[in-house]
Structures are given as C-alpha cells and as structure tokens.
User: Fold this.
Amino acid sequence: MRKVLLATCLGTMAASAAGVAIANDELTKMAQNPKDWVMPAGDYANTRYSKLNQITAANVGKLQVAWTFSTGVLRGHEGGPLIIGNMMYVHTPFPNKVYAMDLSQDNKIVWKYEPKQDPNVIPVMCCDTVNRGVAYADGKIFLHQADTTLVALDAKTGKEVWTVKNGDPGKGATGTSSPLVVKDKVLIGISGGEFGVQCHMTAYDLKTGKLAWRAFSEGPDDQIMVDPEKTTALGKPVGKDSSIKTWQGDQWKIGGGCTWGWTSYDPELNLVYYGSGNPSTWNPKQRPGDNKWSMTIFARDADTGMAKWVYQMTPHDEWDYDGVNEMILSDQQMNGQNRKLLTHFDRNGLAYTMDRVTGELLVAEKYDPKVNWTTGVDMNKSSPTYGRPKVVDQYSTEKQGEDVNTKGVCPAALGTKDQQPGAYSPDTQLFYVPTNHVCMDYEPFKVNYTAGQPYVGATLSMYPPPGETHMGNFIAWDNKTGKIVWSNKEQFSVWSGALATAGGVVFYGTLEGYLKAVDAKTGKELYKFKTPSGIIGNVTTYENNGRQYIAVLSGVGGWAGIGLAAGLTDPTAGLGAVGGYAALTNYTALGGALTVFALPQ
Amino acid sequence: MRRSFLKSHVEDKLLRHIWSVIATIVVVASGNTSFAENAGDPKAVKSEDGKYLDKEGNPTFNVAADGTIDWYTYSGYRRYHSECHVCHGPDGMGSTYAPALKDSLKTMSYGDFLGVVASGRKNVSTSQESVMPAFGDNTNVACYMDDLYVYLRARANDAVGRVRPGKREEKPAAYTEAESACMGKPH
Assistant:
C-alpha cells in the first residue's frame, strides 16, 4: 500500500515539479501581505495575527459597522471569509454555498456556487452542519462539502475545475474542516468519530484532484504512514505495529481518530501539523488499549505524508477529548535559546508547548484551573510513563466502569477549548484563547456498531464548574511558562476564533452575538457590538482602499448550539437557579450574516 | 469478545424481526391515524414485567408516590443522551437545528413515534434542512424504542424534570433477557 502511494506521489511530483514551487511561493508571499487574508488561519503558522494597525487600542472604541451581508442560510456558521485583492469569498454551512464578492464594486456578487448534495448527509454530521471555510491557491477556491466532496472552483468564475470524493457519508464520514494548500497538494481531513470511521489526512493534487497520499490515524504501519525506525514519539522510534498493537482485534477499523480540525505548515521544515480525534466508541471499556494514534499530534512530511514525529496526548480516551485543535507555530526564545515551537490548546484542558522540529515536549499545563481529570503530565524523561497524563481515578470513566455515572469531570466533552482557534501575537508573545468553562457527568455503556449509524455509547450532562455561573473565559496565555496572564469571564462558552493585530487589539465573538475588542496587554474590553446572531465564526481582518476592516460571521449553532441553546443542567442547584445557566435562546436566534466593521472616515 | 461490534448471524435475524414489527406498526399508524393529537392519556393502568401500559395498551411511564420511577424511563434517559441528544438537545429540550421532543411527544402517537424513529423523515426547504435519519437497523436505538418513548413521554408530561432520574425500579429480569437477545451476545 505504502509503496503504491509513494510511487503515485513521486510520479505526481515529477509531473508538476515546475508548478510545485510556484503555488507554494505564491501563497507564502500572499500571506505576508497583511491587506489580504488568504487562508482560513491567516497564515501557515495558524497565528491569526495581522500586521494591520490602523485600528488600535486607542481608537477601536469608535469602530462602526461598515456593511453587512446575509448568507441566506441558517444554522451554525463557523470559519470566516477569505480576502484576496478586491475579492471576498464567503462560505456557508450545508448546503455549502460560496459567494465571491467584489469589494471594489460595492460588494457585488460576482459568482455564487451551490453544490447539489444529498440531504441525508445532514443527520450524519455529529454537531450541526458547520463548515470551517474555503482555501485558495493557483487561481482556485477549494471547498470541502458536507458529503466529503472536495471541489476546486475557478476563483474568477466559480466554475468547477475538478471534484473528488474523500469519504463515504453512508458510513458516517462527513466534511466540516477547511482544506490547506501546501505546494502542489490540497490537504483535507475528515469527520465521523461518532460513527466509527477510520479517519485519515489526505493530500490531493492541486491541478487534477488526483490522490497523492492518505495517512490513517490508526491501522497497520503502511496505512498510518509511519516508519517504525524513523518516526519518533517523544524522541524514541515508535517501533513496528505501533497502532494496531494498542487496539483489541480489528477494532482499529472502526477506530475514529478523525481529522476535522486545523492544519498548519512550516515551509522550512516542510512539515504539516494536525491532531487526531477521539477513538470510537465513547465507552472506553469496549476498546482496551491506548488506541493509538487517536488523540495525537502528527508532524508529517508535506510531500510524502510520512510521519516525522507523533505525540499522543490522551492515551485511551475516556471523555471524548479530541486532539484536533490547531497547532500554532511560533519562533521564540526559551531559556536563552531560539526555539521553533508548536503550541496546542487541547480539548483535555492542557496546553502543550513542543519543539516542532523534534516533537520534544517542553510544557504541558492546565489552561483552566478547574481541569480535574488529571494531576498533570509526567515530565520526567526517565520515567516509564514519561509524557503521559496522570489520571485521577475518581474522574476516570474507565476505572468507574460501564453503567456508572462518573460525576464532576472537568472539562466536559466539548473540552476546555474546541475547534475555535486561538491567536498568537509576536508583539506580546501571548496566545489569545477562546475557552469553555464547563464540567460534566459521564456514563459509558455497551453499544453495537452498525455502519452509518451513531456509535457513541455514553450519556453525559454538562454544567458550569461547581460554584461558578459563567461557562466561558477568554484568556491570554504564556506558552513558555504555561501560565494564564489574564482571563475575561464570559457567560457562555467562547466558540469564536480570535484575531490578534499589530494595533494591540484582540478580537473575538460571543455566543450571544457580540463582537468584542480587548486590549492585547491587559484584556480590558474596549468595544462590543451585538451582531444579528450568536458568533461561532472566526474574526478576520483585511485592508481595502486604504481602510482596515474587521469581518465576522454570525449564525449560532455547532456543538455549542446543542447544549447551550437549551440551557445546561445543574444537578445540584436546580435548573435556572442562577443567571449564568440561563438559556442562550434568551439572547439570540438562528441567523447567517457577515458583519464588517471599520473606523468612521 | 474480539468481534463484539460485528453483528452475528443470529443478531441479523433478530434485527430483521424487529424491523418487520416496526414496519407493521408504521403501516398501521399511517393508515389509520392522523399525525397529531394522538398522544393519549399517559396514565399507567397496568404493568407487565416492569413495563407500564396506558389504557390503550401503549407503553408509558410510572412515578410512584415516593418518586421512584420505572426502569424504562431511566433506561430511556440514558439511551436518549447517547443517541438522540446530539441533535435534539439535552433532556429533550431541542437544539438550534432539531425540535424539542418534550414538546413533540405532547401530540405524537406511539405508532408515529416508532415510525419516525425507524424510518426517519425529511423537511428540507430553502430556509430549513431538517433530516431525521432512519434508526431501524441500529440496535442501540431499535432495541430501546419503548425506553426512549417512555422517557420522552414522561418529559412531555412533566413527570420527570431536567435532571438525571434518581430513585428507580430495578432492571426487570424479563427486560435483561429481551435486551440481550436484541443487542446480541456476547460482549
């Protein structure tokens, strides 16, 4: 299998060797122009930082709405638009429309694309019909549809150039993540961890859509594309059959480990970074073993797909702490040395700082003090449990067992942070992180696997940490010391991606629908405006005709739209006893709108 | 144990049986009854092996004077929060994209409930895309249809609140037997 893939890969590389450098250079160069926003995360390093500084901490209080646009679609709007020159590309949740608008012509819609998809894919999507945005390269817009179709559209006309199917929705595979273009390839992940999909990261040829490589999260070495001798975990070779020997029988075939989060890329190292999600089912008793490589950070060669290093954060998951959140790449000094760092805020409530060249673990600390399922990661390099989290028995759903309700686990399954991406400012060297502040009861029980049907096997209820009334925080984090620098309370989970700017301002949205601007140094709130619906989109900035704009999608939904819209239960104080538990429906309703802000002229 | 997730031949047979029973009910339901206002009086008039039945003979909840709830309501609570809540919200409260079943079950009949859960339904328009999948061949749902119905009926009638049910009856022996047969053994 691997040989075939490699051969295909080499063939593709040889065929388009001339085009390789061009597409990559084009994107790298474009990402350096702060006037544009050319990829969903802003840049390959996923910093969500902009050098634009017209809007500053001093003047952001005067921000006004410049224009708005209704997407014509309800339900959860994750992600954000791309801006390239005078063009803006806006995507929607299912049915996955794309609008191309000309900013120089009063935002006229130049073209609109709407794929035809079987609506049967809707209920196979675990947590609303979200989509996290389109990608651009080589004159094409890449859209990852709900039914896993990856389509390349002519950026000028919206006409289909090629399409390829990445998975089978009939078996529970769906598409929510945003593609990333690296060199001559489009990288795409897949969703379906609640349906027992054997998930993978796949690279397609930029020009033709032909499969270049596919690396599964679990399975035999050739399928997961590791070299037993050369691929390392915490500095040591992973060895033969590193994945399948951590699963019972052939459970890995329905093992999950989905790849629906964000991907980043280091052009110098030629490595792509992403995380894998929960092992299927949610009942840990039913799948003994570490379940590798679910819950894992992967560093893979962008050309071949071969893994350089891996690190499993939550071996044998017992709480649905997917490891898919973004990997933010930064070059910083640590203990007097220049380090190439990777910082990752995991669902499990730990923030990891790693050396992204070697995969060495440098820092692993809780970024919400309420996290209680672990006492921390074993950082002793000579310990047999080096790099593993120490699990507290009281909160272990494995130890408590099937048909037992394990109470008071923090964080809840939606994690201290979910997919909503954080931002990094090189000016302050701080990370700005939208977080959830929610705990849960979790009761696992036996389930049967049926292809295309939910494969969950746990009941859970969620509520704010005991004694607290707020369910979210927006924090500034120091990745070198592993400490919170400042923290702003939010009534609801912060489910919106952050933006940091050279103007010393950090932006984020809230589930009630506010766009907020805060001081990057202190967290002081400088501006807020209530948009038409709750915000689970990511804040973007761009410059057009000499003005800096801030743009964000509203449209409440996503996983946050499940529990929070109904109000979370509080088993101790009773429902609605405290204002903090009040239902989100008292604050906002479904919508789908882009709101664009600027300073008054 | 090794292949616990793969259906055995025996299970397949059982499943087909469940399916045909459900299919029959659907035909009856859609042939004889209108869709709404068929929820009926939820009062339990008798019980058989720990399952309570209303005067129509449909399964229903039972809350004893001391607050003890029947096994089916409890089991339904558990299964609901595994299979249904990701769309229909915690405690049947609904979400931004699926209806609150604590309200739907105020008017929906037992037959209609079984039909929709087994076969699914679609409501797709320009402003809405609601799709309920068919769960008829999913043993995690099909084996617990009555549990789910009884729990949601209890929610619709405010017999249980938005909390995990507390004091409950023991799991009936006949239930355990039926569950094992339906879900397939061994695990």
